[in-house]
Design a protein that fits this description.
Layout lengths: L2 E2 L5 E4 L4 E5 L5 E4 L2 E2 L18 H10 L5 E8 L5 E7 L2 E2 H7 L4 E2 L8 H5 L8
Parallel strand pairs: 4-7
Antiparallel strand pairs: 1-6, 2-3, 3-4, 5-9, 6-7, 7-8
Organism: Sphingomonas canadensis
Protein name: Thermonuclease family protein
InterPro entries: SNase_OB-fold_sf, Staphylococal_nuclease_OB-fold
Length: 126
């Protein structure tokens, strides 16, 4: 169910577009509207994966986790992860990843165009 919920947990970057809430329940959170490079061994041969350095992408996301987080939950994906926009100290993590070149924008994954509007993305990319 969409909405904001206050949780007492520490966010940990799993990769460049996925977080884990290290605390009760261990919620996994997938940032909407972006795709980051896959960690080694995670990009199947039949899949088109985001270009770039997956280690640098994860490090960039982790560096953005210092501060108070707000999670806007928008649903769940087929893997049971929470789909969300996450802001830390007022900075949208998806926008931060895009601006740093650590992820690409994927319009089909942008629930309601929130990332396009929030990150001021003109046009769409596949």
């Amino acid at each position: 169910m969409p909405g904001f919920v206050l949780l007492a947990c520490a966010l940990v970057a799993i990769d460049g577009d996925t977080l884990r809430c290290a605390g009760p329940g261990g919620e996994h959170i997938r940032l909407i509207g972006i795709d980051a490079p896959e960690l080694p061994g995670h990009c199947r041969p039949d899949r088109r994966c985001a270009p770039g350095d997956p280690i640098a992408s994860r490090a960039a996301l982790a560096a953005g986790l210092r501060g108070r987080a707000t999670i806007e939950r928008l649903g769940k994906d087929r893997y049971g992860r929470t789909l969300a926009r996450v802001r830390v100290s007022g900075v949208d993590l998806g926008c931060r990843q895009l601006a740093g070149g650590h992820a690409i924008y994927v319009a089909a994954w942008d629930t309601g165009g929130r990332v396009a509007r929030g990150c001021r993305i003109s046009g769409t990319r596949p």
